[in-house]
Amino acid sequence: MKPAMLFLDIETAPDVVWTWGLWQANAIAVKEHWYVLSFAAKWRGDDTLMVNGLDDYKGYKGGKSTELKLLNDVWTLLDEADIVVAHNGRDFDVKKLNARFIEYGFAPPSPYKVVDTKSDLAGVAKYSSNKLDWLMKQFKIGAKMPHEGFDLWQGCMDGDKKAWKTMKAYNAHDVVLLEALYNKISSWIPQPNAGLYEDRPTCPNPGCDGGTLIKRGLARAITRVYQRYQCDTCGTWSRSVKSEKGLGAQIVRT
Question: What residue spans define the domains of the chain?
Fold first, then answer.
């Protein structure tokens, strides 16, 4: 049994505001708050890539007219997930979705863990940039899909069919890149323990497709010593839950 891992990316519309000018502009007031334009998602181990925009729902009349229906589909996916993987997911995707869920009166989905390929990677490695496109190019495993810039977002907000088609392709491609990045770094970043979902000793990395745990010395805590292991497939390190009998400090400072 593996944890249900969901790769997720969303696109949002900007706030529409009044300002006195363009340079160092401060908003005087908000005419229309941002909303979710589209989402793309994929379950680990499943080849199906899901991507929905507001225009995919019955009753779409431009703007955020069908946002509630889109959010209901995202909420259902989150409710089924044990782990959600997103780039800048903790500060953006998850919080943005939570803001819209609260606005519409949703109850919280069942609890899930978040793996953030941006902040979690930044915690263990220093790159010139942590942007998805930069990392993909540096690792030579892909690049974000080019587009016309803000005009694409404007076209979607105006209900342009061509813009919607491009936006959803762009959103979906980001999830493809996200999974590729996760596969590259999964053994390096902190993650939920996959062993909690198994009834046998297994690699704790939920991104590992199954490897053998090899004994690799001892892990020494403050007063206990534990058997240490390394996965022979992904290289992830782990240790036993129980300490080794007869090893460790016999006297503890009080």
Answer: 5-185, 211-254
